[in-house]
Each structure stands twice: as C-alpha cells, then as structure tokens.
Amino acid sequence: MSNDYQLDTLAVRAGIERSQFGENSEALYLTSSFVFKSAAQAAVRFANQEPGNIYSRFTNPTVTVLEQRLAALEGAECCIATGSGMSAILSCAMGLLKAGDHIVCSASVFGATVTLLGTIMRRFGVETTFVSGSDVGRWSEAVRPGTRLVFLETPSNPLMEIYDIAAISAVAKRAGALLVVDNVFCTPILQRPLELGADIVIHSATKYLDGQGRVVGGAILGKRDVIYEPVFGFLRSAGPSLSPFNAWVILKGLETLKIRIQAECASALELARWLEQQPRVERVYYPGLRSHPQYDLAQRQQKAPGAVVSFEVKGGREAAWRVVDETRLLSITANLGDTKTTITHPASTTHGRNTPAQRAAAGIGDSLLRVSVGLDNVEDIKADLARGLDS
Ligand SMILES: Cc1ncc(COP(=O)(O)O)c(C=O)c1O
C-alpha cells in the first residue's frame, strides 16, 4: 500500500499482507518457527540468501505487518518491533554503543530509562550525562567527543517538559551523535520526530499504540542503514522480541489511535484548565496551558498537547496520596495511555527506584501526581479528583 495516504488510513491498513484465504482483518500467526521445503532451503534461509521467515525470535509475519504499519505512520524506512518499550531502548543502546561511548540524556525521562542508561549501561563502560531543562545551550555543553547518542522524551514523563527536536538534533549532528526521541506521549498522530531531524524514534507500544492497557510491546524506527544491521542483529541474537499475539493486539489498537488521541487530548485540556482553578492545586504541568513554559514550542512542534496532565497538590505527599486514595473511578496504576483514566504518584512508583538526587534533577517531588486522561467523561474525572482535593 502507498504511504501517501493520510495517517488515519495508514493506521487502519498499512502493512497488510493477506494470506491465501483473503482475510480482511490481519491474520495472527501464532507459530514459533517456520517449515522449510528441504535442508537446502533451510541452509539458504539461514545464510540470508533467500528472504523468508525462520523463527519468531527473528521475524514473524504478524510482527512484520505491525513493523510496516508503524514505519508508515512515523515516516520511517525501517521499524524493529521489540517485547517492550524498555527493550527497545536497551536494543538501541546495545546495538549502537560500545564501551567508552557516551550518552547525553534529559534528566526528565521515564524512571526505568534513568536506571538503564545511567546505572546498567555504566557496567558495560557506557557513561550517561543527564541534562536538566530544555535550554539547548545545556545540551551543547553536555556533548563531548565520545558522545554517540543523544536521548530525550518530548513531552517528558511525568513533567510534560517539551524539548526542541530540531534544535537538539542540530547539536547531536555537530557532535557526530544520533538523536533518539522517545515519542510515547505524542505518537505519530501528534508528532513525527524523524521529520524534525531525529535519527531514531522509540515507542512503548504498551501505551497509546495499544491504547487499551492489554499488552506490552515496543519499537525502534529510523533509517535502515542506521538501525537494521546493529539493532536487528542484537535482537536476533539476544531475543527481546515481540510476541505475534501482542503484535496483533497492537495492530487492532492502532486502528483507533487517532480518534482516541483526539478525544483524550480534548478532555486533558479541559481537565488541566479546571485543575488550574482548584485552590488546593499548587501547579499544573500541561503544554496546552499558556502557563506552561514551552507552550509556544509545543504549539509549533505538536498537533495537540497530549493527554497526560501532571499537577502538584498543596500539602506534600500526604495531600497527594489523599487525592489518589479518594478516587473511586480512576485506576490507581503505573500505566498510561489507556482508555481508562489512570492516576499515579511518580515519586513512589514509576520513579521510586531512582535516587532522591535523580528525582530532584528531574523535578519530581512528593506532591506531584500524574493523570493519563482516557475516554472516561471529563466531568466524572473532575468529580473523582475533586473529592480528594476538597477533603
Ligand atoms: C515515556 C516512556 N518510555 C518508555 C517506557 C517503557 O515502556 P514499557 O513499559 O513498554 O517497557 C515508558 C513506560 O511507562 C514510558 O512512559
């Protein structure tokens, strides 16, 4: 299928390759291995002299459909699906880096990303410098001759900081490094980082791409000559692969991605405006509010501000936990991007394993709450939060 179609059409159809039965919905190939016609065919397949599937740790037709659909949506030449968002980041790091290399990463990123890049990769001789704030000058100061990757999330989890992808991509290019953008909060519907100068896009498909809180998955996207050999080579041998069942579920999720995101963003904006009016709310972090320090950049860079709203409650951790505990509708869970609205206290959950210094560098305090707005009616969400805020 041509990739000239609009994004909503691509989300429904891109990558479909029908079997001999002509099914309309994508087929689910639940098989761990594939059968060869002869020993000779097995040998040429293994030697990469003939295209075709061998084993689902390497490739699987259902996973391939998902990879092609995600590539079409992100405008990427190549997509490699992985078993989770974190294994996408791990595969990128393991495939592209060696001991002695250096990473520059925003301090405001998902907690496990801080642990993976800052602590685990250090054991393999890769050092990471974390940059606080979106001031591009700080990114220029942090790069050095051995910098190979520059990594950021925009908007960031959970503070909704916005980073200027084009400006930071220029910094990375000058340093001879690759810019990796975690596009989880926007999805390609709201932002296409490769068009803005990023080299690689990362997804946790667990979030909006599935969108209904069912499965865990991830993806790496970029130019074929940048990612295919090193990153697919790592995945093929190390095995952080996506299961065909999860790929199939994510494909079905993608079909409703655009209408979900649009509805969730509209409710998130309304919720953020309402939260700003609440006397017990200290501060709201949402790039669709004029009070957000990167409001103009978000308007320029994204088609909509996203559907995650974070806010600080007056009264510290006790007051924040009260808001969580008084909810009856919202799901108290660490996931986001689900049709069911979720509420999270990042300092004690998603970022709880980071050191107090790492949390301070990321601006994550005890009074911070993160709400991922789903398809619940926004009036019901407000009423659920008002109970704890008013008590
Ligand atoms: C921005 C971001 N990137 C990556 C991940 C990791 O994804 P996964 O949980 O699928 O490994 C998360 C998970 O919350 C996330 O929020």
Q: Spans of 5+ residues with little confidence (pLDDT < 50)?
A: none
Strand content: 5-15%
Class of secondary structure makeup: alpha/beta
How far apart, in Å, are the first and last alpha carbons? 56 Å
Kindly state the percentage of residues in helix: 25-40%
What is the ordering of alpha helices and beta strands?
A: HHHEHEHEHEHEHEEHHHEHEHEEHEH
Q: Spatial order of the strands in the main sheet?
A: 1-7-6-5-4-2-3
Heteromolecules bound: pyridoxal-5'-phosphate
Average pLDDT, rounded to a whole number, is 96
Quaternary arrangement of the chains shown? single chain
Q: Kindly provide the radius of gyration, computed on alpha-carbon positions and rounded to a whole number of angstroms.
A: 21 Å
Number of helices: 15
Total beta strand runs: 12
Name the shape in a single word: globular
Largest sheet: 7 strands, mixed
Describe the model.
There is one protein chain. The chain is α/β, with parallel strands linked by helices. It is built from 15 helices and twelve strands. It has helices spanning 7-13, 39-46, 61-74, 85-96, 111-120, 136-142, 165-175, 187-190, 224-238, 244-254, 257-276, 295-301, 316-325, 356-362, 378-390, and strands at 78-82, 102-106, 127-131, 147-153, 178-182, 200-204, 218-222, 281-285, 308-313, 331-332, 342-344, 368-372. The termini are far apart. Bound molecules: pyridoxal-5'-phosphate (PLP). Pyridoxal-5'-phosphate (PLP) binds at residues 84-86, 110, 153, 157, 182, 184, 204, 206, 216, 218.
